[in-house]
Amino acid sequence: xxxxxxxxxxxxxxxxxxxxxxxxxxxxxxxxxxxxxxxxxxxxxxxxxxxxxxxxxxxxxxxxxxxxxxxxxxxxxxxxxxxxxxxxxxxxxxxxxxxxxxxxxxxxxxxxxxxxxxxxxxxxxxxxxxxxxxxxxxxxxxxxxxxxxxxxxxxxxxxxxxxxxxxxxxxxxxxxxxxxxxxxxxxxxxxxxxxxxxxxxxxxxxxxxxxxxxxxxxxxxxxxxxxxxxxxxxxxxxxxxxxxxxxxxxxxxxxxxxxxxxxxxxxxxxxxxxxxxxxxxxxxxxxxxxxxxxxxxxxxxxxxxxxxxxxxxxxxxxxxxxxxxxxxxxxxxxxxxxxxxxxxxxxxxxxxxxxxxxxxxxxxxxxxxxxxxxxxxxxxxxxxxxxxxxxxxxxxxxxxxxxxxxxxxxxxxxxxxxxxxxxxxxxxxx
Length: 430
Ligand SMILES: [Zn+2]
Hints:
Bound molecules: zinc ion
Number of helices: 12
Shape: globular
Oligomer: single chain
């Protein structure tokens, strides 16, 4: 089984041919210098080749909410979006807080085989914020968990957060925090601002995120551990991260495609497809988040793909679920927000959507250089495409994509997972 990719531009730079055999890149050379009569030839003229995308923050909903998403449908959405690895968040039913549950998720991911599924382990039992889960048993399991998060909930108790940070040092783990001070965000519905007052929706103040990020940075420094900040959404968080990185605290951060592209203005529609946690912020925050990503203060883009069935998103804003899908649109949103605006290059996109996330997740076979003897995990993009998002045209079981009807630049055309097409010319290969 051989594939010869011809005339692809590697990370938007050099044009080269790539020969893949079984799961590996076996040869790379100048155009038309590689001859192989057995190989399937695929012409990539005008297209860009990146390492396969890696998501640090995906909600696959299985086990427990198979009406919203399954590991199979979520994997297909990931392949369609150019991903070769995703980290599945722990807020399932049952919660992924034991070796048994993380191994179940790991095994289901393997059996689907469209993308590597790496389970995230819960920090506390049942995500209740009371007692630490069996972190080392999850780390030692077949799923080899390295990222732990109560995402959906904040580990708000400082003593528990400190213990978790100390505990994961034994196996070089990282605590990924959903930073939300619970008392400051009771019944919160959207960003706290003049607009939330006008709309009559309870505010979710920026300080509720920033207070936790600041506290966690200090705790991380105090115990010399590793922290990852999930979905940074405010200019204030960026300031704290800049300070922490200056001080060489071991902290990384992610931003979502929706926080790079949408603002609280969308809430004026009262359309709950724009309801998300943390909420869409001010235009000034969007600008700061883009700059921080370009400057490396924010390390990665993570989708926070959060599928919900229609009945949970329809109806009144106050009763609708928080969350948006994003695996299939992430690359195009980032390209529109960051490349079209000349804030970043394709090589930067490879860094923030593949290389850095793989490093944070400690994955050896993703986010690697496009080079001979490397595993062939690749994402191939048409940088000149312009397309209108149709939320119904999805592999996800849910259609709560906020970009529905918007026009985006660039499109993923092929995904190669471990040497085989998992998505070819827009078609997921099942
Ligand atoms: Zn979260």
